[in-house]
Design a protein that fits this description.
Shape: elongated
Strand content: 15-25%
Radius of gyration: 29 Å
Number of helices: 7
């Protein structure tokens, strides 16, 4: 596999962008259907619309419930990011609950080392914080000057949580009513200099998020690195021609030898 490595300069036409972590709540409460099709589906629509407007940016995905995990490290491949997004559903994290603090810490980890591009976290959650540790998570982002934009998913009246064809119940057998907590999500946004968003239109929320991201420092995140030119085509063509030639020679030899009888058969 012969290759030619070059180092191409960054062109003035190259797109610029920011680093964004989409931090998505996958706790059971995100299956509630007070927004359509449900809270997790509503959140994924927002992320999809936002990604479609982030050409030149890098994105990562963190999922969380009672624990938090980096599902997709920071990448400029937005098509791959949308494939990873499509599979996200409530219950992906076995440890149930909503650990907002750990989710913020994992998001800071996903953003990695400093760069010239602005860094931000877009958290999509109904805001039910059952695990604590929120202050530590906020501090980890403030130290790196990372802004958090929080989208509160769900309607004020709340909704029951469907689980396996039935409703999630409490210890007394009563259906659990899940209500979003905009106060705690606003606290996260305000503490990091970000913003808090609610609404019934995924596209409208997405447009507001993109407008906020465009106020951050923009930088080229894909250009200026090593450029690889593949040189395999010519050797492969020569090898193919030689293979065809060799095959033709073998066929001619076979026909020639078929006429020569070293051990002939003679009748008595």
């Amino acid at each position: 596999r012969p290759q030619l490595y070059t180092h191409a300069p960054i062109s003035a036409q190259q797109s610029t962008g920011v680093d964004v972590v989409f931090c998505i709540d996958v706790s059971n409460s995100m299956a509630a259907q007070d927004v359509k099709p449900n809270r997790i589906g509503f959140a994924k629509q927002i992320v999809t619309h936002t990604m479609q407007q982030l050409s030149g940016s890098r994105v990562a995905i963190v999922i969380f419930a009672g624990g938090a995990y980096i599902r997709l490290p920071l990448t400029a491949d937005l098509s791959t990011a949308q494939i990873f997004l499509a599979d996200i559903q409530p219950g992906m994290v076995s440890n149930q609950g909503t650990n907002l603090g750990q989710a913020l810490e994992r998001s800071a980890q996903a953003l990695g080392s400093p760069s010239q591009a602005g860094k931000s976290v877009i958290m999509l959650t109904d805001g039910e914080d059952h695990e604590g540790g929120l202050e530590e998570g906020i501090e980890s982002l403030k130290k790196q000057r990372i802004k958090v934009y929080v989208v509160t998913i769900g309607l004020p009246d709340g909704a029951n949580i469907p689980i396996g064809g039935t409703l999630l119940t409490d210890s007394l057998g009563a259906p659990v009513l899940s209500k979003p907590n905009p106060e705690i999500t606003a606290e996260i946004a305000n503490a990091t200099g970000g913003g808090s968003f609610v609404g019934s239109s995924p596209r409208a929320i997405s447009d507001k998020l993109v407008n906020q991201l465009r106020t951050l420092p923009q930088a080229s995140l894909s250009g200026g690195g090593p450029q690889i030119e593949e040189l395999y085509a010519l050797p492969m063509l020569v090898a193919l021609l030689l293979l065809i030639l060799a095959n033709g020679i073998m066929r001619r030899k076979s026909r020639l030898f078929s006429r020569i009888q070293i051990f002939g058969h003679h009748e008595a």
